[in-house]
TrEMBL record:
Keywords in alphabetical order: Coiled coil, Phosphoprotein
One protein family per Pfam: Response_reg
Residues with 4-aspartylphosphate modification: 313
Protein name: Response regulator receiver domain-containing protein
Response regulatory domain mapped to chain residues: 262-377
Length: 377
């Protein structure tokens, strides 16, 4: 406003004289012209310096607000409602989920969720809250979070702030406590079984045997020996029962040999990566697992690094599994390959015969028993 006013004051005498709106002598016009130029220049200069002074005062405030936003201990994203572009994300969001404003595509944010409907409702600009939902971080680990969608305006533009409160550690602790409780209950029940067998079964047969041994009557010796034999057999059966109970935990808890293996997954589905990681490490904690959503990045990695097995998805948007196998052959990458598929198609079985590296198929989602057999072989 001040800048415009100064410009008008400086120019208006010339416009009045040009259009001859007022008749004045030369000296009067000179005074009016000088006044307009001086006043306009002063107002223009004052407004200019005032504007920059205010801006300098505001910049530290904006910088302080940004530093607070960036250092928040929770993950925060800011999206524009129109176009659903990612405008900002703080350090925690980048560290945990890999989100960064350089990648403005909201599909990266969507890939962290099981249910895309949650993302659509949040990015639609509604004020919403989701409690205890699961998000998938950049390491393909589940995160148990509360999610808040908060609409606001920035310079007349509709924006959406997304805040995540992570309570995964609490959830993990509760899970560990529950496992410990279940284990203690099982052990307590086993102790009760042992106590009952000892007091009611084994001790009764031992007492019978000791009593029969003390019998000294000759007439009763034959009958006593027969009863002693029966009591000894009963005792043997009870001891065998106890041995079975003692061995039960070892038999049920028998694990595969823990071998170190390098297994590579190539699949565009982040959720599948999370599921597969948890199942494989549950069966064998010594596995080195490498996950790729982009098949071209996977090819570059395989060309430079050794691996034991490749688990390859057949249907991917950038290239299918068969084209990936052809590129492997062209680059001279030799590796045992298992194809991942949602349903076993006879055509896929036929195609696999033309690739010597393919040694079998695994049905998604992977299950404990399938993984155990796969690792054993």
């Amino acid at each position: 406003m001040g800048l415009t006013g100064g410009l008008v004051l400086a120019v208006s005498p010339f416009l009045i004289r040009w259009f001859e709106l007022v008749t004045l002598n030369t000296k009067s016009w000179q005074i009016i012209t000088d006044y307009g130029i001086i006043s306009g220049t002063f107002l223009f200069g004052y407004s200019y310096f005032f504007f920059h002074s205010v801006r300098r005062l505001r910049d530290p405030e904006a910088d302080t607000r940004f530093q607070i936003f960036n250092k928040l201990p929770n993950c925060v994203w800011v999206f524009s409602k129109e176009g659903q572009r990612l405008e900002m994300s703080n350090e925690m969001a980048t560290a945990v989920y890999g989100s960064h404003p350089d990648t403005q595509n909201p599909d990266l944010f969507r890939s962290h969720f099981y249910d895309f409907k949650i993302v659509e409702e949040i990015l639609s600009g509604k004020n919403c809250v989701y409690r205890n939902i699961v998000m998938i971080d950049k390491a393909y680990e589940p995160r148990y979070v509360d999610l808040f969608g908060i609409p606001f305006k920035r310079r007349r533009e509709d924006m959406i702030l997304v805040l995540v409160v992570d309570h995964s550690e609490v959830h993990q602790s509760l899970g560990q406590i529950q496992k410990l409780s279940d284990s203690l209950m099982l052990q307590n029940q086993q102790l009760k079984d042992f106590s009952y067998m000892n007091s009611h079964k084994i001790r009764a047969h031992v007492s019978n045997i000791l009593g029969l041994i003390s019998v000294e009557e000759t007439a009763a010796s034959g009958q006593a020996m027969e009863m002693l034999k029966i009591a000894a057999n009963n005792l043997d059966r009870e001891v065998q029962k106890m041995n079975r109970l003692l061995m039960e935990k070892n038999v049920n808890g028998k694990e595969l040999e823990q071998k170190e293996q390098r297994i590579v997954f190539v699949d565009d589905d982040k959720v599948q990566h999370m599921i597969n990681k948890r199942i494989l490490l549950k069966v064998n904690n010594y596995l080195d697992l490498f996950f790729f959503e982009n098949p071209y990045q996977a090819l570059d990695w395989l060309a430079a690094n050794p691996a034991d097995v490749l688990l390859l998805d057949i249907n991917m948007p950038e290239m299918d599994g068969w084209h990936f196998l052809k590129l492997m052959e062209e680059r001279g990458i030799q590796l045992d390959v298992k194809m991942l598929t949602s349903s076993l198609d006879p055509d896929d079985m036929e195609k696999s015969r033309s690739f010597g590296q393919v040694s079998g198929f695994l049905i998604k989602p992977l299950k404990d028993e399938n993984i155990a057999e796969f690792l054993a072989n």
